[in-house]
Amino acid sequence: MPEQLAQVEQSVQLQSQANHHKRVVKWSIASGVTLLIAVVLIAVPVFLTMQINQLASDLSNQVGITIWLNDDALTEGGQLGKDATNLLRVLEENPNVDDVYFVNKDEALERFTQMTADSPEIIEQLEGNPLPTSLEISLNDPQVVEQITEQIVVNDHFLRSIDDPENPKDSISYFQPVIEPLLTATQPVRIVSSFVGVLGILLGIVAFALVGNTIRIAIVGYRERHNSA
Q1: pLDDT tens, residue order, the chain (229 aa)
Q2: Which of 31, 76, 153, 161 is the most buried (most CB within 10 A)?
Q3: What CATH number is given to the structural domain containing 79?
Q4: Count of domains in the chain?
Q5: This prediction's pTM
Q6: Whole domain around residue 105: which residue ranges?
Q7: Residue 170 and residue 189 share a domain
């Protein structure tokens, strides 16, 4: 009889240990899966946000203003005349302007030649150098491009340096519309990414809680086996 009782106790103990082991395995799997999901949910939004920001930054760096000058704004040597020079100085003194670069007719022709390298007949048909000179303006903050443009088109030096003072905006160009649609189009993506990122952080907290609970169960099981030994 005592032997049968001992066997029953041993069987119950083994069953208890097996159940405990199953619980530890179950909690370990649950915590591992939860932690993996949390890492993915955090990593994906971070990656998407970085890519969007990088794209916006690359496009922003390409945003600038180009002023097309008429030939009368130049000296006989092809350099900037009085009004064009004064315009250049005004632009350089603007705190929102990073740099102003003068593209003379020779450089303009060289650029055009490179652009049409696949169609050399275009260059062959040109008579002389009809390309205009220009001022290329890079900005410290691309978001102020419209503000700077509005300041330029009412500048007297600018108006005396272009072909058609009655239509000053025909002699100035910029690419601000590229940035705003990008930011607008990616706004939902960034909002969703932020939400998913927060969800990932919450799941990460849950995963660490599960890990802690798994460790606690394992310790309890160890104590039970040690006490029964």
Answers
A1: 555 544 544 554 545 555 555 665 665 666 666 666 666 666 666 676 676 666 666 665 666 899 999 989 888 888 899 999 999 999 999 999 989 999 999 998 898 889 888 888 777 887 788 888 999 998 887 778 888 999 999 999 999 999 888 999 889 987 654 555 655 655 665 666 666 666 667 666 766 665 665 566 555 555 555 555 5
A2: 161
A3: 3.30.70.3040
A4: 2
A5: 0.54
A6: 64-174
A7: no
